[in-house]
Amino acid sequence: MPDTAPLSFSISALNRATDSQAAAMMDRVVERSPWLAHRAAAARPFRDADHLAAWLATEVSHLSHDEAVLLLCAHPELSPSDPANITQASQNEQGRLRLLRPDLQLSERLSELNRRYLRHHGYPFVIALHAQTDISAVIAQFEHRLAADPDEELTCALGEVVSVMRARLAKLAGAMPTTNGAPETTFTSVASTRGSGP
């Protein structure tokens, strides 16, 4: 089997792949975090997409604080200045709400919110856009979470990452998400009390 990722994604293909192939396949689910993709490859085999999604949720919930911030920093800000430089999955997610080419007023508003959020929390604002109906809902959550308690916001942001990964996985595996895109269960994290890196 050539040491490149298969063109199509399935759990059976993931389980059969070499470690490097499996990690490359997981890059389609995990946003620019090869260290987490390799952990998923090492955790195989998975019974099905739900099993992999549950593993990802558990793994993210047990990340150290440094790992959690590293994972969040791998995600692009909303309406990035260079949209061609973000992953195809992120382009698709942001493009659905026309965040890649916003009008001037929205662009200026998002730039301001991005700066304030990053300054306050130390990582980009992450939201599961697949679960949002329109940009007004996104802005409302952005403004609400901007002033959130740091520990609570870290847990919230990681929950959004888990939701993004679940949705990407469901799309790739041809499965239907079990909810409208929000995390399936209340997400908890120990990241605020741990400090080691990946």
Task: Tell me what you see in this structure.
There is one protein chain. The chain has about 200 residues and is mainly α. It has one domain (about 10-185): UraD-like (Orthogonal Bundle). The chain is about 55% helix and about 0% strand. About 35% of the residues are buried. Mean pLDDT is about 90; it is low at about 180-185.
Throw out a few tags for this protein.
mainly alpha, 198 residues, UraD-like
What CATH calls the topology is: UraD-like
Distance between the termini: 29 Å
Instruction: Provide the CATH top-level class.
Output: Mainly Alpha
Q: Flag low-confidence runs.
A: 178-185
Largest sheet: none
Q: How many domains make up the 3D coordinates?
A: 1
Radius of gyration over C-alpha positions, nearest whole angstrom: 17 Å
Structural category is mainly alpha
- Find the CATH superfamily: Oxo-4-hydroxy-4-carboxy-5-ureidoimidazoline decarboxylase
How many strand segments?
A: 0
Architecture per CATH nomenclature, i.e. the level-2 architecture: Orthogonal Bundle
> Number of helical runs?
9
Catalytic activity: 5-hydroxy-2-oxo-4-ureido-2,5-dihydro-1H-imidazole-5-carboxylate + H(+) = (S)-allantoin + CO2
Pfam families: OHCU_decarbox
Domain Oxo-4-hydroxy-4-carboxy-5-ureidoimidazoline decarboxylase: 15-170
GO molecular function: 2-oxo-4-hydroxy-4-carboxy-5-ureidoimidazoline decarboxylase activity
